[in-house]
Design brief:
The complex is a heterodimer of chains A (244) and B (408).
Chain A lengths: L1 E13 L5 E13 L3 E5 L6 H8 L7 E6 L2 E2 L5 H11 E4 L11 H11 L4 H14 L15 H13 L5 E5 L7 H16 L3 E5 L3 H4 L4 E6 L2 E7 L9 H8 L1
Parallel strand pairs in A: 3-8, 3-9, 6-7, 7-8
Antiparallel strand pairs in A: 1-2, 1-4, 4-5, 9-10
Helix pairs in contact in A: 3-4, 3-5, 4-5, 5-6
Chain B lengths: L2 H18 L1 H36 L6 E5 L10 H5 L8 H8 L3 E16 L2 E11 L3 H4 L4 E4 L4 H5 L4 E4 L1 H7 L9 E4 L2 E9 L4 E2 L3 E2 L3 E5 H8 L6 E6 L5 H16 L10 E4 H44 L1 H9 L4 H34 L9 H28 L2 H6 L2
Parallel strand pairs in B: 3-10, 5-7
Antiparallel strand pairs in B: 1-11, 1-12, 2-3, 2-6, 2-11, 4-7, 5-10, 6-7, 8-9
Helix pairs in contact in B: 1-12, 2-10, 2-12, 2-13, 4-9, 10-12, 10-13, 12-13
The chains are: A alpha/beta (244), B alpha+beta (408).
Bound molecules: adenosine-5'-triphosphate (ATP) and magnesium ion.
């Protein structure tokens, strides 16, 4: 079943004085439930713009976006908020936890916004934190956690509402390679449990964890290829990284 | 998400946000604190003054006309005209009594401060009043013990005295006053009555520190050169105007004024004071309202300013919340709650200050802080919070999630 379908999506930024930036050009793609997709591309190619649209944080200038079969291209703020709340789990490069709140409260947030009663909320948040291995850290504030632990809180938060997709924008960008690998293993596990994962990265060896790579350049899709189980796509940088 | 859940979450978040910035929150509250102190104190002062005034004014009967040389309220500003008027004479009372049809009782009253003595106890600065037996009916006097002097005692200049409750307490602390002999400036009087307590006039002087004796006795002690005011109670309180006109006519006849001459006396009544008081209370209230509104306005601007700062500081957080599914309304409510909490805190602190302050002010000015004023203060502070938080909260709620997330 299709979770995401983009048809000829454009995103144009109006810079005033009749200057326009076309960040996305005629993007069409579809993603099935249970896929693990990496989106790659050089800086300024439109990855984040695409991510924002996929995550319903932004709407396309033109084109069609069906999420779980529902047209979200012309939804208003409140309808989009609901999709983000129940359909999408975000994992950001900078973790984006609320600094004043402890791990538990951070993980609870999506449930608060979907109106789950407090006791059930706490239960579920605790269980999810245990699942990401932070059962002992529920009352720690973000600044009392390591980078990897913070990202695991963020993953727990992304998972708590059983979303249709998990969107991870450079999830390892702010982590050392060992911690980054742990997080990637974690996403791998989630994928194996049947979650749909969309990963944005510019690192080949990170992208290789995915089963399909969509490369974009100048706002358009350059290639969209599955990765064979054994036949890894290797580039010189990846070789270096692997040797380290 | 339900509104109740939103509200609880907003309350929790706002509380945390304020706790994280306690000093700032308190400084921001300052304007509101001052505003609420001024609104409640002003309210309390007006309330207290009104009560004290109404209590005091009761000692000036609403149905009593006072013929005097001076008017109680002079709007002309030509005080020297009153100064040159002739003084009133004691025998006017008899003449008025003879001619009036609309007056129930008329009595001349003279007074000055004197010294009372009972055995070895002395009371200084007691108001000594000389009058006739009719005074009892003019002032509708009530007694805790004994009676007023009779027509015969008044006519016959008997050495009898009616004392106020303060005098009774001071001179006869453990003795029945009625039947005792006290001395007024050396002359001996038998106490025949103790008047019921009347309280004080505007908290300034006691109306019970008084001794009342027959007019002739007063003149024996102090001489005949005292000029009275003449007090008359009207027969029908609903017909004050006609009674006053009649009294005025009689006075003009006594004074032998031609129709072209203006009155050379004043007829005063409670109504004059009430109206003057209402005017003064209105002015105090107006000025107070202005000062209060101004300080609340300034306080509100302060809150608005700090809320803008708070929204800017938390732009990223707002972006995160929106990414996680917070609706516009959720964000709006959160910030409105925050500004209301600041104001509510300011309001409560203001009340905490103004209550003891009102006790202190009460020592100089009659003050009273009823519950309704406290509630009004709280409601006003909530309103200021909602109004001044509205624009910053709307700005927060309308933030674009992508922009907000990118904010560092
Ligand atoms: N808010 C905006 N207003 C104007 N132009 C924008 C805006 N956001 C992005 N762009 C432009 O759109 C293009 C794509 O930007 P985007 O952020 O999607 O790139 P990216 O692939 O995520 O790059 P990076 O790897 O550096 O994060 C860029 O040319 C950028 O300048
Ligand atoms: Mg980017």
């Amino acid at each position: 079943m299709r979770v995401i379908e983009l048809v000829k999506v454009n995103k144009v930024y109006d810079m005033g004085a009749e200057v326009q930036v076309q960040a996305l050009k005629e993007i069409s793609l579809s993603i099935e439930r249970g896929e693990y997709v990496a989106i790659m591309g050089p800086s300024g190619s439109g990855k984040t713009t695409l991510m924002n649209i996929l995550g319903c944080l932004d709407t396309p200038t033109s084109g069609l976006y069906l999420f779980d079969g529902v047209n979200v291209s012309d939804m208003d703020d409140n309808e989009l908020a609901k999709i983000r709340n129940q359909g999408i789990g975000f994992v950001f490069q900078t973790f984006n936890l609320i600094p004043r709140s402890d791990a538990l409260h951070n993980v609870e947030l999506p449930l608060i916004y979907s109106g789950v009663p407090a006791s059930e909320r706490k239960d579920r948040a605790k269980k999810t934190l245990e699942m990401v291995g932070l059962g002992e850290r529920v009352h720690h504030k973000p600044n009392e956690l390591s980078g990897g632990q913070r990202q695991r809180v963020a993953i727990a938060r992304a998972l708590i509402n059983n979303p249709s997709i998990i969107l991870a924008d450079e999830p390892t960008g702010n982590l050392d390679s060992k911690t980054g690998d742990e997080i990637m293993l974690f996403l791998e596990e989630l994928y194996k449990k049947g979650n749909t994962i969309i990963l944005v990265t510019h690192e080949e060896y990170i992208a290789e964890h995915a089963k399909r790579i969509i490369r974009i350049r100048d706002g358009g899709i350059e290639s969209d290829l599955p990765i064979a189980k054994n036949g890894k796509v290797k580039s010189p940088q990846v070789m270096e990284k692997v040797q380290v | 998400m339900t509104f109740g859940g939103e509200f609880r979450e907003g309350l929790k978040l706002s509380f945390m946000a304020l706790m994280a910035n306690k000093a700032r929150a308190v400084l921001t509250m300052l304007g509101i604190i001052i505003g609420i102190i001024s609104v409640t104190l002003m309210g309390a002062a007006i309330e207290g003054l009104t009560r004290a005034f109404n209590n005091s004014i009761a000692s000036i009967g609403a149905d009593v006309l006072y013929v005097q040389k001076w008017p109680w309220m002079d709007t002309s500003g030509e005080w020297w005209k009153f100064r040159n008027r002739k003084d009133l004479e004691i025998d006017y009372a008899e003449k008025i009594k003879r001619d009036a049809t609309l007056l129930a009782a008329v009595a001349p009253v003279v007074g000055r401060l004197g010294t009372l003595k009972y055995q070895n106890i002395t009371a200084n600065n007691v108001q000594v009043e000389g009058t006739t037996s009719d005074f009892m009916y003019v002032s509708k006097m009530e007694f805790t013990d004994g009676r007023f002097f009779t027509y015969e005692e008044s006519r016959g200049n008997r050495p009898v005295a009616v004392i106020g409750s303060d005098v009774a307490d001071q001179l006869f602390p453990n003795r029945e006053p009625v039947g005792q002999k006290l001395k007024v400036n050396g002359l001996s009087f038998r106490v025949i009555g103790v008047r019921s307590k009347e309280g004080s006039f505007m908290g300034m002087f006691s109306l019970d520190n008084v001794v009342i004796i027959p007019m002739g006795q007063f003149q024996d002690i102090y001489g005949k050169h005292f000029h009275p005011s003449i007090e008359a109670r009207v027969a029908d309180p609903s017909d004050m105007d006609n009674a006053r006109e009649e009294l005025r006519g009689i006075m003009r006849k006594i004074r032998g004024l031609s129709p072209l001459q203006s009155d050379d006396f004043s007829i005063n009544q409670q109504d004059l004071l009430t109206r003057a008081f209402d005017r003064i209370a209105g002015i105090i209230g107006g000025v107070g309202l202005f000062v209060t509104a101004l300080s609340l306005f300034v306080g509100g601007i302060g809150i608005m300013n700090i809320m803008f700062v708070s929204v800017t500081e938390r732009t990223k957080e707002i972006g995160i919340r929106k990414a996680l599914g917070a609706k516009r309304r959720t964000i709006l409510v959160q910030f409105l709650i925050e500004s209301s909490l600041i104001c509510l805190g300011g309001g409560l602190l203001g009340l905490a200050f103004s209550y003891p302050l009102s006790m202190l002010v009460d020592k100089f000015l009659p003050t009273s802080m009823p519950f309704s004023i406290a509630i009004t203060g709280i409601l006003i502070s909530l309103l200021v919070g909602l109004v001044s938080g509205l624009i910053p909260a709307m700005r927060a709620s309308k933030l674009d999630p992508v922009e907000a997330l990118r904010y560092e």
